[in-house]
Design goal:
Helices cover 40% and strands 30% of the residues. With 83 residues, the chain is of the alpha+beta class. The chain has a domain of 37 residues. The protein is elongated, with a radius of gyration of 22 Å. This is Diguanylate cyclase. It holds the Pfam family GGDEF. It comes from Candidatus Reidiella endopervernicosa. InterPro entries: DGC-Regulatory_Protein, GGDEF_dom, PAS-assoc_C, PAS-like_dom_sf, Rev_trsase/Diguanyl_cyclase.
């Protein structure tokens, strides 16, 4: 989920909503908890970049090349293009 800070910045967040029940077992109200997961998303993006690029040269590595070739072949098969 995405949320907006008071300064207007948009940030990723995780939201959980829990029902609170009264003595009779009926829902009386809900409690919502929103957690900012910006640092988690940044860490995931950095790990993905490092998995697909050489740390010294910053050039794409063989893993990224193979993934892009596989994607191109799949797309060509879907569209009926000879590859």
């Amino acid at each position: 989920m995405w949320n907006r800070r008071k300064n207007g910045d948009i940030f990723p967040c995780w939201q959980t909503i829990s029902a609170v029940k009264d003595e009779a077992g009926k829902v009386s109200h809900y409690v919502s908890l929103i957690s900012d997961i910006t640092t988690i998303k940044e860490s995931q993006a950095k790990a993905e970049y490092l998995a697909h690029h050489d740390p010294l040269t910053k050039l794409p590595n063989r893993l990224l090349f193979n993934a892009r070739v596989d994607h191109a072949i799949e797309r060509a098969h879907r569209k009926g293009i000879m590859f």
